[in-house]
Structures are given as C-alpha cells and as structure tokens.
What does this fold into?
Amino acid sequence: MIKKLRIVFSGIENSGKSTLSRAVASELGFEFIEEQCRYNKAVIEGVETTDTLIEINSLQESMALESMSGSINGVVCDTSSIELRMWSRVKFGCDIECPIEVPIDLNFLCQTLEYFEEDPLRQMPDYADRVEHEIEFLEFLKSEDIRVKILKPSTLEERKKYVITQIKKLING
It folds into this structure.
C-alpha cells in the first residue's frame, strides 16, 4: 500500500502559494485544498476575530481529513494552521489553538515575490514590508520547531520542479 501524503504550502501573502500548490496537485494527481479564508465573510469584510481564524482552521483540517480518505495519492493544501496562528499573533497579539488533524509530511515555505499581484485580501503592497513580515514568520517557525523547505523566488516551473523532486524523494525513501 502506498502511503498518502499531505503536502502544505506556507508563506506570507504574495508568495505564490496558491498558484504553485494548485499546479503541483494537478500534476501529481493529489486532491487540492484551497485557502479557505478567501471564502469567509468576516475575512472578506475585514472583521475577522480569533474565533474566525479558529473556525477556518477547523474547516481546512476537516477538508484535509475528508480529502485524504477519498484520495489515491494524498492532498496538497494551500496554507495551514501556521498562517492562521501567525495572523492571530500579528493582528490580535495572541496565539490561537489550531490543532492539526492530518499530519503534514512536507511543508514548503514560499518566499514572497518582488512583484505585487493585486488581491482583495492582500494588505502589503510594499516588498520591503513583506520581507520584514516574512522574517517574523521564519522566526515564528523556528520558535515552534516547524520544519519547512524554503522555496526562493523563481519561476513557477522552477519551483514546481523542485517541489515534485522533493515529494518523489519522500515517496521513494
């Protein structure tokens, strides 16, 4: 029996997580779970609370659990509890409980991209601000002993090739 994998893409806004995770899932035949904050009314209206973030985590984790049971190869997630916890720390000054229901086999951190792509939920158009926030994000990961493979800014194809190589290494031992 082949072990199903959970692959997660982390990072701050404007790092290419969504585009890359969707492309990897499609190429490898994994189920894809999109970042759920994009569909949350409170987030869209800018009135989210810590409870909102906890609810989003719960939804994303239940989707991962359901997708894992129905998939052949596993699931690729565009974000996880890491971003939600960091969001809570930055916006509300506190950490939140975000249990992980499905263990993460590989976690990739997409570094922010220099060019800015407009998006209604993005709040940091200035590259220097994003880099500064990314440093805080990396410090948070280190403090929590969360291991990630860092994806430096490059083309989608270069990032995808690296990610697929890493996944195949994991599968093949």
